[in-house]
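Entry type: protein chain
Record version: 2
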Amino acid sequence: MNDEHATPDSSAPAPIVPPPPPPYLEAPSPAPYVAGPPSSAPYVAAPPSPAPYLIAPPAPGAPAGIRPLNVLAVISLVSAFFVSVAAVVTGHIALSQIKRRTAQGRPEQGRGLAVAGLVIGYVGVAAGIAGLCVVLVVALSGGFRALPGISALAPAPDLTFEAGQSLDPTSDIAFTDDFSHQPGFTESKKDWGDGDSQYTSADGKCTVDFSKTPLNSVQVVKGDDQATSDNLLAMLQNASYSDVAKFADSGALIQGSLYSSSTVDVRTMGWSGADGTQGATVARAFTALDYGLAVQISCADDASMQTASRDVWASAVIATQ
C-alpha cells in the first residue's frame, strides 16, 4: 500500500502551539498646550536699581560709623612745624577733599587739623618772607657780612688816626665784600681768609687789589698810625719816603656799611707810568694790631682810572669786630 494514503496515527501526541502575545498598549499622548489669553496690560520694565554705594570698611578695631580721617589734613598740621609751604599746600587740598567728599555722602574728619596747619603754615611763610627781607636789606647795605675766615663784622665809631691807638689788640679789622657787588667788576681772586682779593673790570682795563699786610716789613712809628700808613704806602708803591711825604694825601673810607656815616682815616697816593697807565694806593696802618689794610688800583688809561677810583671810594668798606 502506498504510504500517501496511510491514515494518520491517532495515538500520536498533538503539537504544542504557543499562546498569542498580549495586545500592545500605547502611552497616552500629552494634552496639547493651550496658550492663555493675552494680557491687556502693557509690559512695563522695572527701573534700574541705583548702583550700590560702596563704603570703605572701617580700619581694624575702629568702631562702626566713625568717619575716616583725611590724611592730608594730618600731613598739613605736622609739616607746619617743618616746611610751611608744604603745610599751606596740603591744608588747602585737604579742605577741598573734605568738602567734596562730604557733598558726595562720604564725610571725612580732619577739617580742624587742616585749618590749624594752614594757620601755622601761613605764619611760617610770613616769618620766612620777613626774615628774607631783613637778610636782603643787610646784604644790600653791606653790614654784618664778613670776609672768609672772619667772624661777623659790625659798624664801629670813626677810626681816626688817633682813635686807632685805643683799639683792642684782639680786634679784627677787614674789608667787607661790598665791592664784589660793584657793577662792572668781577672777582678774579677770592679772599680765602688772608684778607687778599682782586677784582677786574669788565673791559679788562683795571684791576683792584684788596690786601691785609702785616707790619713786620714796614717801619712802624709806635703811637702814630698816620706816619706808619705813609711808610706802608712807600713799601706798597716802592716809593721813597720823601715822595710819599710830598705826594700822599689824607682821605676817608666808609666804615661798617655802605649807608653808614662813620669813616676810617686813610692815606692815599697816585702814580702814572710812562706808557700812560695810571694807579693809586689807599692804605691804613693799625699799629695797635700790627697790620694794615690797603687798596691798590691799576688802570690802562686815565679815563678808566677815574671810573675805578670813583667806584672804590663809593663801595670799599672797612668794618671791625
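Comment: The chain has two domains: 71-141, 163-320.
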